[in-house]
Structure formats: C-alpha cells, structure tokens
Amino acid sequence: MINKHPDTMTYWRLGEVDYMGQPSWDGPHTSSCRWEDEQRLYLTSDGKEARGRSMVFTDDGSLGIGDRVYQGVSSDVQPPEDSYDVKQPRRIKNIRGTRVENRYIL
Q: Which pLDDT belongs to residue 2?
C-alpha cells in the first residue's frame, strides 16, 4: 500500500492573546501529511480572493485558521519564523462518507 502522507509537519494551535497582544501557542505537535508547494486561490471570510503558498493534506483535523504549520519536525515552543499560518481548513469526505481527509491552505 502506498503511503499517502509521506511527509511530516509540526503545528502549533493558536491560544489566548495576552494583555500585550502576544499570542500563546499550544504545541509543538507532529503529524504525518502530504505537503504540496503550489499556489492555491481561496476565498477569505469576507469574500475576497486570496492566494495561499502551500497545501497540506492530513488525517489530523485539529487545525483552524490562525494556527501555524512548519514543514518537518521542530521542538520549538514558539512557531519558527519559517512556519506558515493556516488560511483555510477544509474537510473532504469520500463518497460513502466513511473516510475524511483534511486539507489546509497555508
């Protein structure tokens, strides 16, 4: 069987913002994924068209808008500078509705 998620990503979920405006982060967490570096168009929450730099496919459905994703493994408590914001999460079911894949535009 072919591994459809051959890559590894590290992610941090966005937590509360402190009184100085700095976010707290829940992480790092690692997960297997398929990472594609190609630009994708998507619609923002206010209906404007924007462009993402990468698409990540994974079985892990815990990410949301504003969370940070890094390609590879990182043990940093804060997301590194070369990590990317999740711009658009999307859950895709198969025809029977028995499997779900999560796609994230970064």
A: 57
Taking residues 49-55, report their average pLDDT: 91
Phi-psi region of 77 (alpha: psi -120 to 50; beta: other; left: phi over 0): alpha
- Residue 37 sits in a domain whose CATH number is 2.40.10
pTM assigned to the model = 0.84
Structural domain total, the chain: 1
Average pLDDT over the chain reads: 88
